[in-house]
Amino acid sequence: MIEFPFVPDEIIAYKQEQVARLQAVTPLPGLRALAKMQARPLDLSSHVLENRVALLARVMNPAVDLGQSASGAAPYDPVALARRLARHGAQALVVATDDRYHAGAIEHLTLVANAVNVPVIRYDFIIDEYQVVETRAAGGDGLFLTPALLPPEQVRRLLSITQRNLMTAVVCVHSEAELRDILPFEPRVIAINNYNPLTDRVDLSLTPRLVEMVPGHVTLLTMGGLESPRDVGQVMAGVDGVLIGPAMLLIADWAAELWEMLGTPGPGPVPPESEPPRQS
Q1: DSSP the chain
Q2: 204-243: per-residue pLDDT in tens?
Q3: pTM above 0.90, yes or no
């Protein structure tokens, strides 16, 4: 996902201001009450581990995803995109909700979660307990945590809060050092990001280097810098899932190449538009 320019201090200051504004409208106790009204979250690991290598797809404004200005672009319909991706075989969806950097909204998470029957994971810059509870109140099944943005102890705390809210925390690392720092926290799901937003560089050798460091009981994902099925082929060995952009599932030739690479026939004939309601 496009995160560059990635300036941690600037992002944290913006998110702190945003959380303060939201709490002034809906204090944390009220948000917790809303969260308790939601159906039990879907378990990401269970869905991912049903497959030899699962495909997760991102739901993001395509103009931002391509590094373009969102102004003047075609209207972004996260529900329509999410439904298409689920019909084309995505085993989970990652929804960008940050408004400033990804042109997203927390409402997108709710809309998508109500439209599909696969896990829906929030992608945002999570720095505070309020955002974790907000994710559950919005109907999300999990969220991403970014150690590049946070001190290790804050990652540990947010990981614990996410688990107490019965959601999946996907801890996203960009280096060997970040991985070593978070392993003692025993995360259930780790994502290796081959794209480093601090340097704006892609290193597809990162996942193969880090795979051996991750304990076998951890669900391991890879993401970032994957522009074609050939790129996926370079990073899929030893992982449980790959987070890809929409094009790889929606362009027929690329999708066929992916499914062949993964050793599965894929979803078969694409089902009709209608989606059954999410099961509680």
Answers
A1: ----S--HHHHHHHHHHHHHHHHHHS-HHHHHHHHHTSPPPPPHHHHHTTSSSEEEEEE--HHHHTT--STTSPPP-HHHHHHHHHHTT-SEEEEE--HHHH---HHHHHHHHTT-SS-EEEES---SHHHHHHHHHTT-SEEEE-GGGS-HHHHHHHHHHHHHTTPEEEEEE-SHHHHHHHGGG--SEEEEESEETTTTEE-TTHHHHHHTTS-TTSEEEEESS--SHHHHHHH-TT-SEEEE-THHHHSHHHHHHHHHHHTS-TT-SPP-S--PPPP-
A2: 999 999 999 999 999 999 999 999 999 999 999 999 999 9
A3: yes
Q: Residue with structure tokens 């060997």?
A: 176
